[in-house]
């Protein structure tokens, strides 16, 4: 059946065709073609050739020529003041051409004139053009010759009619400028590279004489009190009344380090204050390991088998007990404490009765009647932050507040492991308590990009305090709750330190990405900040519409799009082309006004003389915009090639097509070629450019006179029409291979554009605005 453009651009383009179309040399072998080419004996008829010639004959009637006869009256002189007015370009009336014949009866299968004309053309018949006589109209006008002196208040009035120079020598130095705005492919914004500062070191306790006071406790036994001649936990209450009395008067003693004479480096006296006027010193029996209280410092010496200057603390808060070269582990018993030679066990295996210290400034105030949630809510309110730039360990540091946010980058975090190896920076401080579930939640919070450092730690602290409240909720064990909460306070302090900050931020770097809060912004330079690259206010010509998108020397960025510079030489714009309407031969006086001569003078097209004495380098391509169908063009290898109006969009291709263009439909064909004989002046540098669109990614190869000038340049299926070129063409010389001498000093040679694509069904490309012009 017959194949039409509408069927090819419609359902066939999307779903394939149900039947094949026989074609040869770009002509469709349908019923119309058969009626024209053959009679009943399948022999071409001479009469049919004559009918085609007659039908294709065109009578051209030139525009009327007006002869003006002017009668002059007396001259006069006047002076006027002129204001600059808007000038419109002159209008030129083209000659009209009209066919005059009808379709023969035997070709009734050719339903419209275009089908009959196409069939005749495929028959090899060409039509002649008959030029009628030029009508002449004589008009007489009487005018008074006036000499006018003009006083301009603004720039001189532009002429409403361009007067070309009488000497055509200006064409020898004729130049014009154009600049194609860059076309950018879609690409994601660069990943923001975050550099985290090194956290400052903060020690748990200052051991100097003016340092912190602290409590001593064992997590399983609670706070240490003064017991007889030593230290130990309180006795369990005998009944509920005793428990209430104990907790109502809860006031554990505080301790501090003091510098002693003859002390070993890093070791101090440990002084206890129980509310009385006298201070007592904690002493170690260097033989038995018993820990007792004495009234004065031994100043680094052993007196009566005891030494007071044996205590210290690490920056991270680990309690140190040393005498000479011997280290001790200090633990609590039911009623006292004892120091045993040795080193603390590995993380998470430290006995629950090991002595630890808690600075008084970190301890949660204990109240018999207050609930954990009420006491913690006031502290958490101080850290109510909800942005990745907040706190001492922000996920996205170094940016103005509110300009970035953190989101998952798709990397799966490590599974939570309780208070295990990843938590060793805090579990080394104190023995492992029943906080495993809280530690798991804390791990998960650190790995959640929308969470922030302080809030994760606050939730962790609250979880531990709730665990203590749940575990020690009866009168007979309630006295152990303060010790459990003290351990929770120590854990909480540990996860606020520099080691925890480093863990938090290293997890952020591995599992989170920082993004500009404004979707139209990006960080385009390392160490830079978020800047507008898209939308209103995006005016960086080096990052226009995205990072690295440079508008070039003759354009600038306006609201994320490259636009032409307003100053010469390219003050005007047609699509993606920057140019000057005053001189551009393909947009002379306005977009789309093509000068056949290739010369634009002050916004008007210049027409060379009928019998030139030199070669005028007009546009070498005829009908490059396909406004006259496929005239002058030959197509090979295409299923269908047809010129269509720009109002007919190509399926799957967006954007604004040119006013008319050639659509090439390819079905299981890897190459289609369009060609024509072009006319070029010898010794002149030309360039080739055109518009193209494709449903798939194609390549094209361009030859001139058989010589490859562009080798498989890609046409991307980016969904729109884009400029291709300009491509420099070789300068031709008279007698050069592949050329012939034509009329008016032109050299004639063949231009061929080879469209090359995948061997698939239902493919199409569009070509338009093909031009070979001078530089």
Automatic annotation (TrEMBL):
Annotated signal sequence range: 1-20
Keywords associated with the record: Secreted, Signal
Annotated GO MF terms: calcium ion binding; phospholipase A2 activity
GO cellular component, one term: extracellular region
Cited Pfam families: PLA2G12
One example of a Gene Ontology biological process annotation: arachidonate secretion
Subcellular location: Secreted
Protein's name according to its UniProt entry: 7529a241-620e-489b-b273-ed322fd8d75e
Native organism taxonomy: Eukaryota, Fungi, Dikarya, Ascomycota, Pezizomycotina
